[in-house]
TrEMBL record:
Biological processes per GO annotation: thiamine transmembrane transport
Domain of life, per lineage: Bacteria
Originating organism: Nitratireductor aestuarii
Residue ranges that the Swiss-Prot or TrEMBL entry lists as coiled coil: none
Pfam family of the protein (one): ABC_tran
Name listed for the protein in its UniProt record: Thiamine import ATP-binding protein ThiQ
Record keywords, A-Z: ATP-binding, Cell inner membrane, Cell membrane, Membrane, Nucleotide-binding, Translocase, Transport
């Protein structure tokens, strides 16, 4: 079981996308309206190109909407740069700087210039320990397995202590055993830190295992939102059953 390392854990934050519209140059129009309760775990599913990554990038501040608002904990963050939004993000790969050690990569979660106080150093060591990377703090990412690299990325999230965590297919490049391990770690992180989590996945089993809520996208819009159990087991709308094909549960 993971425990917050110092002081109180970050409180989770509710998230809202209000009448967000967005388009890439010469790209399709995307529009999102979504409310996520504080502390919820949400899986974001949908066919390739439906807008899952764009949705996360808009919340993180890597893309700017044409109109609409993004609220974190009720506060309008639409015009804020990514690091001021209270949001951490983990991608499928390339979360770490290749020329920095695990310890330095995790330390970046506390200070972009790696000027770390003794308290920061303690938090970094604790996060490395808690993600099972003890003894690997001095390694470069190239000397880690894929699963270890994702755990190092999670260690950085731990020291950032943001109330919202978003993961864009974090399990896609992992084999089944490592995938289970990461899912367990994300679950533990949620239990101990209480953060609000959004995770893009193509696997309904991941969604069932981790997420209370499911958001389903199609062609740049959210076409279904509900509890994962209900949507995957009972009343799946036809767009979702078509997407799941033979993988229905
Ligand atoms: N940088 C870009 N420039 C132009 N169009 C883009 C860009 N990135 C994505 N798109 C388009 O925007 C739409 C949404 O893409 P997005 O990557 O959000 O989908 P996704 O659901 O995450 O897909 P996947 O499951 O394949 O990762 C798609 O039509 C895609 O082709």
């Amino acid at each position: 079981m993971l425990h917050p390392d110092n002081g109180s854990p970050p409180k989770s934050a509710g998230l809202a996308l209000e009448k967000i519209s967005f388009a890439y140059p010469n790209g399709p129009q995307l529009a999102f309206d979504l409310k996520v309760e504080a502390g919820d775990i949400v899986s974001v599913m949908g066919p390739s190109g439906s807008g899952k990554s764009t949705l996360l990038n808009l919340v993180a501040g890597f893309e700017q909407p044409l109109s609409g608002k993004i609220l974190v904990d009720g506060k309008d963050v639409t015009g804020l740069p990514p690091h001021q939004r209270g949001v951490s993000m983990i991608f499928q790969e390339n979360n770490l700087f290749p020329h920095l050690t695990v310890e330095q990569n995790v330390g970046l979660g506390r200070s972009p210039s790696l000027k770390l106080s003794p308290k920061d150093r303690k938090a970094v060591a604790s996060a490395i320990e808690r993600t099972g990377l003890r003894g690997k703090a001095d390694r470069l990412p190239s000397a880690l397995s894929g699963g270890e690299r994702q755990r190092a990325a999670l260690a950085r999230v731990l020291v950032q202590q943001n109330p919202i965590l978003m993961l864009d297919e974090p399990l896609a490049s992992l084999g089944p055993a490592l995938k289970d391990e990461m899912l367990d770690l994300i679950k533990e992180l949620h239990q101990s830190q209480g953060m609000t989590i959004l995770m893009v996945t193509h696997d309904p089993q991941d969604a069932l295992r981790l997420a209370r809520t499911l958001v389903f996208l199609e062609k740049g819009h959210i076409v279904a939102t509900g509890t994962t159990q209900e949507l995957l087991r009972e009343g799946a709308p036809s767009a979702l059953t078509d997407y799941l094909g033979g993988r229905g549960v």
